[in-house]
User: Fold Transglutaminase-like superfamily protein from Dethiosulfatibacter aminovorans DSM 17477.
Amino acid sequence: MKRKILAFTLILLIITSTFLFAYSETYTISTTYDLENTILSNLYNRNTNISINYSGSLNGLENTLNGIIYKDEYLKYTIGNWKWSYKGYEGNIDINIEASHLISRTEEDMSNIKIDEILNDIITQNMTVHEKIKAVHDYIVLNVAYDKTLTYRTQYDALFRNTSVCHGYALLFYRMMEELNIPVRLVIGSAGSAHIWNMVQVDNTWYHIDTTFDDPVPDRLNQVSYEYYMLTEEEISKDHVIEEENIPHTSTTYEYLLNELVENSGNSVYINLLNSLGYSYTNTDTSSTPANPTINIFALDNYVEYDSSYGFPFIDENSRTQVPFRITLENLGADVSWDGETRTAIAELNDIEVRIPIGEAYIVVNGRIVQNDTKSLIKDGRTYLPIRKVMESFGYTVGWDGLTQTVLISE
Assistant:
């Protein structure tokens, strides 16, 4: 009788094995490293059933299986449920993993293509990391509406249905940051109820960013809030409870960081960011507003003296410093001229010729086109040029003193 039972068991096992083989691949693995990578690869492919014959050791196996889902933060938050089981003995262990996913492989592939298309539209090559983060934040807030039915929760839903709960907002921001190679995290916690948002790293500093809370409910056309944009832990903790462990900390406010960048780099991009986010443009040492709003030019140890006959430097609509062409270049010792036929200002210095076509976002340096991020222009009958690119073309270093609002030009 025992033999009959054994024979029946063997037949059942053979039938079962044949059935499994027909519907899923069984992997043969011998090392912990290969075990982890095989499981992760299958989870990335959104497989729901993973069968493995493991010839390694039982010692530490449970810790390995329990820890796999924590190897990848994005994967962790796009798996609905998963469970594992194993049977066998040392050197011959059958492992089975069942997983459900919030997003399918097809939906993920479609989302990745869509993300690339969007980033190609909203991101330009000359953007700073700060500008890229804001562009992605604004796109999500303007194009996704909160799902009050609490049905949709992935980046696919946010992209193709234009609606999602917080999960989809955070996943979409995460994936866009990944594509831009900007360090990003997902943060689990609560804000009245269970909630998820992001952290992003810029200039070696991590900030909290909650696109869900920056999206007005009900949805309002073309309206973006920055109340939950680039916050410190202290700032976000006013109404968010952080449950995630081992998250990075910062006490430096984003407003302070931007002001430091203005002072240290002179890049008017950061002034524009300060203004668009509703921050104050202040000196980071004294936290006081500069008394003199005039833009000064300090070139080669001397201030350039401007008056009404030449015009005065100013910040244009693209937050770039424009300076009167002739007086500025002549103070540096350049020979200047004007080609009326092509409406081009010309400056020559140290065997370098810079041609500045009016109304164009480029200059020509010794016959080579150099792209600019704003246009030269004529204002009140005077020719103005974007100072940074022109000065750098002559080999000068351009800086910025935020306290006195002075462009610094040095050799």
In short: Residues 274 and 280 are 7 Å apart (CA to CA). The mean pLDDT is 86. The longest strand covers residues 79-89.
